[in-house]
């Protein structure tokens, strides 16, 4: 691709707010040229990268705007550390159906039992679900 055409293409992509595509166009062009990719495969890779970047940006924005006191996702919660916890119920809550049903969740227990961790983990899951 000619340098002038590439610059114009990048400017068009920026104007269309396709910033990830504009940043990665040269690498994708190089890969397509080396791999002999068809136009449809090339466009699919390019648009997939843009969509993935946008989804990641939305998730990061939601988490940042939520202002969680600490970043504790579900994966880091030790379910065995809280023997009284109903694991089935906790796993059900990670599905976030309580939000659609407009139900409240109340955590109670002694200090240091993971209430804040569980609440934050459920909040992060809600951010991931795009509710």
Helix and strand arrangement:
Blueprint lengths: L2 H13 L3 H17 L3 H28 L20 H7 L3 H4 L14 H15 L2
What do these coordinates show?
- The protein is mainly alpha-helical.
- It folds into 2 domains: 64 residues, no CATH class; 56 residues, no CATH class.
- Helices cover 64% and strands 0% of the residues.
- The longest helix has 28 residues.
- The model has no long low-confidence stretch (mean pLDDT 89).
Describe the structure in brief.
By secondary structure, the protein is mainly alpha-helical. The protein contains six helices and no strands.
Q: What's the number of helices?
A: 6
* Major sheet summary line: none
Order of helices and strands: HHHHHH
Structural class: mainly alpha
Strand content: under 5%
Query: How many distinct beta strands?
Result: 0
Structural Rg: 22 Å
Quaternary: single chain
The first-to-last residue Cα distance is 42 Å
Mean pLDDT: 89
Number of domains: 2
Overview features:
6 helices; mainly alpha; 131 residues; 2 domains; elongated; 64% helix
């Amino acid at each position: 691709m000619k340098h002038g055409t590439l610059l114009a293409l990048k400017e068009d992509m920026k104007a269309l707010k396709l910033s990830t595509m504009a940043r990665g166009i040269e690498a994708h062009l190089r890969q397509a040229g080396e791999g002999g990719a068809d136009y449809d495969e090339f466009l699919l890779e390019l648009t997939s990268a843009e969509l993935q970047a946008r989804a990641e940006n939305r998730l990061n924005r939601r988490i940042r705007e939520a202002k969680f006191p600490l970043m504790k996702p579900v994966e880091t919660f030790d379910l065995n550390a809280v023997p009284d916890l109903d694991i089935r119920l906790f796993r059900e809550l990670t599905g976030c159906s309580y939000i659609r049903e407009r139900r409240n969740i109340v955590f109670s227990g002694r200090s240091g039992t993971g209430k804040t961790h569980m609440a934050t983990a459920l909040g992060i899951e809600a951010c991931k679900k795009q509710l």
